[in-house]
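Observation: inputs received (chain + nicotinamide-adenine-dinucleotide).
Thought: call the complex predictor directly.
Action: predict_structure
Action Input:
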Amino acid sequence: MKFRNFKTVPKIIFGRGSFEQLDDVLAEERQKADDFVVFAVDHIHKDRALKEQIPAQSHDMIIWIDTTHEPKTSYVDQLTEEVQAFANGKNPVSVVGLGGGSTLDMAKAISLMLTNPGGSASYQGWDLIKNPAVHHIGIPTLSGTGAEASRTTVLTGPDKKLGMNSDYTVFDQIILDPDLITGVPKEQWFYTGMDCYIHNIEALNGTYINEFARAFGEKSLNLCHEIFLEDHPDADEKLMMASYMGGQSIAYSQVGACHALSYGLSYVLGYHHGIGNCIAFDVLDDFYPEGVKIFRDMMKKHNITLPKGITQGMSEADMEKMIKVASGLAPLWENVYGTDWQEHVTPELLRSLYEKM
Ligand code: NAD
Ligand code: ZN
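Observation:
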């Protein structure tokens, strides 16, 4: 039997206003006069108040991360080269990611690629990274993905959507400041928040579950109920913790059917992770009856309407590609059905689910 020996984020600051402490955290990394920091910041913040609070010094580098599309290996490689050119090959002392899951993943990926040659597509998989990353810090401005806690950075490459999963991927430090997620537009808040809710439902109903993963998953799920079914005054604080604990839960368990289907939607139709999950989850009554029922209550409460009929009129080749992507995610299906998952996950089943969306 093989037990997972999973790495967690070693340093965490939590609380409203804690973003201010970033400067002190970076001071510990800055040793020499020419040491510099890279701030990878979601482009949405370019015109927002947060921009003025970034503790950048004159010789630091700020990269505005374009999150129109979710992270691609080509974008990671391009930005890594820009960082390398910035200081003639000298690496930064820290890479700070400031944004949602996409930006956090970009920061993780750049910090890994600065010390591992050959381009990010060659590291999509499990434990392919050879060298420790540059020190990297994650600061969410959108909560739900659990990217702040996880050992992966999800990338779309030339032939697959797959993370660079490794112990080196994990952030050295995270700062969870609920002020930073206050005022996120409602639909985005909901879709990314549902990513967390669905992580918990899939982990808690999976065959991989153990008491370690359950402890985090149940608490995270309870927080999701308070956030999305009640109007709790501390909803921002709760969502930040729910996201982190959901990430901790799946670190020792796994996601399931919804994520497998959502990966297909994303790869072929370009749906972003949060909304793609919601579209897929809405047809999974047979898999997660109670979870789907409560999910619909949450949608109703927040007036969310999902796109429908999204696979109508798509080509047979695209449908087959989507089925191939979804059925290729072996650990996810094993979590759903156990080791004989291949007997259950037929192309016909996946097609019928996609056709309902
Ligand atoms: P995102 O990072 O893609 O951002 C979605 C939108 O929200 C963007 O337009 C962005 O500009 C905007 N945004 C971010 N912060 C904002 C703020 N404070 N106010 C207003 N708008 C803001 O969305 P996400 O759902 O957080 O992340 C999705 C990505 O995370 C996907 O690429 C997915 O694959 C990845 N993911 C990674 C992990 C992991 O463990 N690494 C887990 C789940 C998902
Ligand atoms: Zn997810």
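Thought: report the result.
Final Answer: Residues 64 and 327 are 35 Å apart (CA to CA). The two ends are 39 Å apart (CA to CA).
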